[in-house]
Amino acid sequence: MDRKKKNILIWNLAFIGVIIGISFFIYKASLRVNYSWNWRAVPSYLVYKSQNEIDSPTNGFVEGYKDGAVIIKSTEGKLLRVKVKHPTVSKGAVVSIGDEVGYNSSYKAGPLLMGLYMTIKVSLLSIIMALVIGFIVGLMRISDNPLFKNLAIVYIELIRGTPLLVQIFIIYFFIGTIFSMTRFFAGAFALAVFEGAYIAEIIRAGIQSIPRGQTEAAVALGMNYYQVMRYIIMPQAIKRVLPALAGQFISLIKDSSLLSVISLTELTKAGKEIVSSTFSPFEVWFSVAALYFIVTYTLSLLDRYLERRLAGNE
């Protein structure tokens, strides 16, 4: 084994040692907390088994169970089939209207999974709108037209200079009321407006990082502004700004947790509701953090994949 490989092995072992040390510290710290852990309840917050009771629609007695249905003979002599997956009555049993004859069960998404779905849904819509806003404002920011340029500067500085929480309140209670926005769309729009300012600066920096000589050469060949941006500038700029854009998208997903203040039941709001009803804060918030990490890490992996693909096309 050469010296370089030996050093890599040593540092990898050191990394494993640090992870083990941190895990041991967390474990010992958890023992010092006077808290009754209940991790067995966490899976039911993600997926749970629902049971729906099935009642008898008539008075009579049970003839039997066949082909997924309880057969009931009414006092008038009519045979009725009641679809039931799990019967709770036996043949010959006397039943009255409203008596339980069985139940149907199915798996349903729990509150955390529903909250995660809402987080992903609102984040995807926000990302699309933020890209559109950021691209347009980024082009306005580098425009020679004073109107477009100054409007872009005012928007960027105003949005970056005020807290997202305040912007959410303004858009939901003021702009949302004027335009009759739903809670979901108002929240997505607030995130898009906020992140759009940062994306605009990323787009501007990416475009301006391309040597000006390329633009001049393209114009000399007879290309117009649209063709220069479409075929020369943007393909190169996108490759350069992709990591920064991925970082903003990850930030947007995490910022979506603030939408709980307008009662949008995303992942954080779902976690709050579970904690208030179960008094199990640690298990719930650790689970919420893990779900956020899964989503953001998946986005990071997608970004790395796209970077490798774009690098391979050069």
Output the keywords:
alpha+beta; 10 helices; AA_ABC_transptr_permease_3TM; MetI-like fold; cell membrane; transmembrane helix; three-stranded antiparallel β-sheet
Give an overview in words:
The structure is a single chain. This protein is an alpha+beta fold. It folds into three domains: 34 residues; 63 residues, OB fold (Dihydrolipoamide Acetyltransferase, E2P) (Beta Barrel), CATH 2.40.50.100; 202 residues, MetI-like (MetI-like fold, Orthogonal Bundle), CATH 1.10.3720. It is 66% helix and 13% strand. It contains ten helices and seven strands. The strands form two sheets. The protein has a four-stranded antiparallel sheet with strand order 4-3-2-6, with no helix packed on it. Strands 1-7-5 form a three-stranded antiparallel sheet. Strand 3 and strand 4 form a beta hairpin. The two termini are 35 Å apart. It is a multi-pass membrane protein. Part of the binding-protein-dependent transport system for glutamine; probably responsible for the translocation of the substrate across the membrane. It is found in: Cell inner membrane; Cell membrane.
